[in-house]
Amino acid sequence: MKSKTPPLDASRPLEEPTFLSDPPLVEAVAGLREAAGLCSRIRADAPFQTKSDSSPVTVADFAVQAVLARRLAQAVPDSVLVAEEDSRSLRGEAGRPMMTEVTRHVRSVFPGATAEDVQRWIDLGRGEPGTDFWTLDPVDGTKGFRRGGQYVIALARILHGRVALAVLACPALSLAVPGLAAEPGVLAVAAHGEGTWACGMSGGSWVRLRASAVDDPKEARCLRSVEGAHTDEDWLSRIVSDLGIMPAPARMDSQAKYLVVAAGEADVIFRLVPPADRRHREWIWDQAAGALLVEEAGGRVTDLEGRPLDFGAGRRLEHNFGVLATNGRLHDAALATLRRVLPR
Ligand code: AMP
Ligand code: MG
């Protein structure tokens, strides 16, 4: 995608900030790299189950959650983890084939792990959201993971309802950012007040990311979910035409969309479910890491009515309606349009 990124502020130091050396973040980054490797090995033909909401869950979702939950418990002993999966569907006779595969993959990281260990580690993610907790989506964009599209591993720390730290691994994403390797695989981190930084999945230096400087809605590059079931397509067409956006919205799975906006390669994301699902409220692990990456790169993230996302309301964003993420410069124009054409 064409990049239009503001020049770097010469008054800011270019060296890496010290938060990148904080032990919990170093552990988290190493854990997500390890988990990305696990996903790449599992990706071809991953066995899957279908959850009660009809979404798929694969061996990779469970194996990554087990590995990262165990790593987090070791690195930050009193941490509370709120993660997407739990081990219920892996228990009993029906779950045995899947459980065997999950255990086999977890053993590639922790060689002595038993099936009971793996179930216990997965269920470390059943913590209660409070004033200080971590949230994990072990594979966000599972449909993208299965069809060869984008998917991410997303970890965030929530303090008093706000995202304080975000770590996102995007094994299939390439960004045309100077200093980043061209091959697919990007790891990104953001901390409140410290900016958004990225490096290659296999290493290299950290590069600071900036949202774009596009301020004319006509030029705005818009991203939307691939899934028709996650997008009110009629409404999105009305928004796009009311704002005068010329390029057709591009489809991308998962929170990789937010990283693309943080890197200045797209400018706006609208997220609103179709009318039949209008009572749907977003899961916190689907939005937390991505939202901080955009904000710390100079962008803005609110719901479709302009409210800040409230990560202190439980496992879902109960107090928010949809999501609007922009490069910052386009946010007010987008909200003004939304006030005219927002369905309820
Ligand atoms: P995306 O790839 O942007 O469509 O986002 C994928 C995420 O959408 C998944 O991780 C799901 O948690 C979430 N999701 C599942 N069902 C719905 C739904 N009906 N509306 C909106 N999001 C959903
Ligand atoms: Mg998800």
| CATH homologous superfamily classification of the largest domain | Fructose-1,6-Bisphosphatase, subunit A, domain 1
Strand order of the largest sheet: 3-4-5-6-7-8-9
Shape: globular
Overall pLDDT confidence: 94
Number of separate structural domains = 2
Bound ligands, named by name, code or SMILES: adenosine monophosphate, magnesium ion
CATH class of the largest domain: Alpha Beta
Query: Helical region count?
Result: 9
Identify the CATH architecture of the largest domain: 2-Layer Sandwich
Major β-sheet, in short? 7 strands, mixed
* Fraction in beta strands: 15-25%
By CATH, the topology of the largest domain is Fructose-1,6-Bisphosphatase, Chain A, domain 1
Question: Structural class of the secondary elements?
Answer: alpha+beta
Q: Percentage of helical residues? A: 25-40%
How would you describe this structure to a colleague?
It is a single chain. By secondary structure, the protein is of the alpha+beta class. The chain is built from nine helices and 14 strands. Helix 2 crosses helix 3 and helix 7 packs parallel to helix 8. The model has no long low-confidence stretch (mean pLDDT 94). Bound molecules: adenosine monophosphate (AMP) and magnesium ion.
Q: What secondary-structure arrangement, pairings included, does this model have?
A:
Blueprint: H1 23-43, E1 48-50, E2 56-58, H2 59-75, E3 81-83, H3 92-107, H4 115-122, E4 132-140, H5 142-147, E5 152-159, E6 162-170, E7 186-191, E8 195-200, E9 203-209, E10 222-224, H6 233-243, E11 250-251, H7 256-262, E12 268-271, H8 288-296, E13 300-302, E14 323-326, H9 331-341
Parallel strand pairs: 3-4, 10-11, 10-12
Antiparallel strand pairs: 1-2, 4-5, 5-6, 6-7, 7-8, 8-9, 12-14, 13-14
Bound molecules: adenosine monophosphate and magnesium ion (MG).
Adenosine monophosphate (AMP) binds next to loops.
